């Protein structure tokens, strides 16, 4: 058995088996059925060793994270995840690494009801690329370009935990024992807000997922929607673990600049704000209103208690 045949063995059977997959792994291409009245949503994410993860990171967690970050992009579009393709570049064939990576990938794919429908393997520096495809009722995908002046800005969950997890792994920040599991979980095993993303289809005017940090990410919505934004840093949702581990200014710094939280950032027009709590409470994910969309295109204002908040932005780099 050749090396690459061996590798393909780990990915031959996928997590979920979907009835809308005509041909999956093993042919020259996959054949997929897109339901009548639905649009196909496609997204790609790459994770490179030394840039996005440590080469000796737990391969099972990497398999999970690769699926979760791709599915998170689908969630941000309001799409239902369906299919995954994998492009794997490996420096050598390590069966223990491969079987753990595949296990993490398969169990997470199954959790999100995604089927692995193909891929490619090459030799080179360790790099993981995934293409995720999802479906959304025609015209209902949520883009970054629909925010209007006066819309309320919301985020799901809590912010800054993954950035603290990275700093804990790097040994540059202490976290008390009782919070370590939570913080490391948030960094290594992010959740994609899939059900909530779909529930936002008829509520949100724009949405995206938080991969690079709120301060950078919201500027994508501002640019695509040609608007500005005003954020009250006092309203940023911070976990107890983050608050107990950092002084207040550092906690806000991590919540604004820290990447990889994979929470959803979205805007809601005033008229639809009333239905938000009712429609979204079944999902059990906390929502926080952190500000408003403003008319000054490209201007991001940070406030705290009605005062200008002094903030020096340092972009999120995974390893710095
Ligand atoms: Mg994204």
Can you walk me through this structure?
With 320 residues, the chain is of the alpha+beta class. The chain has two domains: 3-137, 60s Ribosomal Protein L30, Chain: A, CATH 3.30.1330.10; 152-308, Phosphoribosyl-aminoimidazole Synthetase, Chain A, domain 2 (Alpha-Beta Complex). It is 33% helix and 25% strand. It contains ten helices and 13 strands. The strands form three sheets. It has a seven-stranded mixed beta sheet with strand order 8-10-7-11-9-12-13, sandwiched between helices. α4 (161-169) crosses α5 (177-188). The longest helix is centred in the first third of the chain and has 18 residues, at 59-76. Magnesium ion is lined by residues 73, 76, 208-209, 211.
Secondary structure blueprint with pairings:
Layout: H1 3-11, E1 21-23, E2 31-32, E3 38-48, H2 59-76, E4 80-90, H3 95-111, E5 115-123, E6 127-137, E7 152-156, H4 161-169, H5 177-188, H6 194-199, E8 206-209, H7 214-225, E9 228-232, H8 240-245, H9 248-257, E10 264-268, H10 274-280, E11 287-294, E12 300-304, E13 307-308
Parallel strand pairs: 4-5, 9-12
Antiparallel strand pairs: 1-2, 3-6, 4-6, 7-10, 7-11, 8-10, 9-11, 12-13
Helix pairs in contact: 2-3, 4-5
The chain binds magnesium ion.
């Amino acid at each position: 058995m050749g090396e690459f045949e061996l590798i393909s063995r780990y990915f031959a059977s996928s997590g979920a088996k979907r009835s809308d997959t005509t041909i999956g792994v093993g042919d020259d291409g996959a054949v997929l059925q897109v339901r009548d009245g639905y649009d196909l949503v496609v997204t790609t994410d790459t994770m490179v060793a030394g840039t996005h993860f440590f080469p000796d990171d737990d391969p099972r967690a990497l398999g999970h994270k690769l699926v979760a970050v791709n599915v998170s992009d689908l969630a941000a579009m309001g799409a239902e995840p369906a299919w995954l393709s994998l492009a794997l570049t490996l420096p050598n064939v390590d069966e223990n690494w491969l079987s753990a990576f595949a296990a993490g990938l398969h169990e997470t794919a199954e959790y999100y009801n995604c089927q692995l429908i193909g891929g490619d393997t090459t030799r080179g520096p360790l790099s993981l690329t995934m293409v995720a495809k999802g479906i959304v009722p025609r015209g209902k995908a949520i883009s970054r370009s629909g925010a209007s002046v006066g819309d309320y800005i919301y985020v799901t969950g809590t912010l800054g935990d993954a950035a603290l997890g990275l700093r804990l792994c790097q040994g540059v920040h202490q976290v008390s024992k009782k919070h370590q599991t939570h913080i490391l979980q948030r960094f290594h095993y992010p959740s994609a807000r899939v059900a909530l993303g779909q529930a936002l289809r008829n509520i949100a005017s724009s949405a995206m997922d938080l991969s690079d940090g709120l301060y950078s990410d919201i500027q994508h919505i501002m640019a695509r929607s040609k608007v500005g934004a005003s954020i009250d840093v006092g309203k940023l949702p911070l976990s107890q673990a983050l608050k107990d581990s950092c002084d207040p200014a550092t906690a806000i710094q991590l919540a604004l600049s820290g990447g990889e939280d994979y929470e959803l950032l979205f805007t809601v027009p005033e008229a639809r704000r009333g239905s938000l709590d009712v429609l979204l409470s079944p999902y059990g994910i906390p929502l926080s209103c952190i500000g408003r969309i403003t008319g000054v295109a490209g201007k991001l204002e940070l406030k705290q208690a009605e005062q200008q908040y002094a903030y020096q932005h340092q972009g999120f780099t995974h390893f710095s």
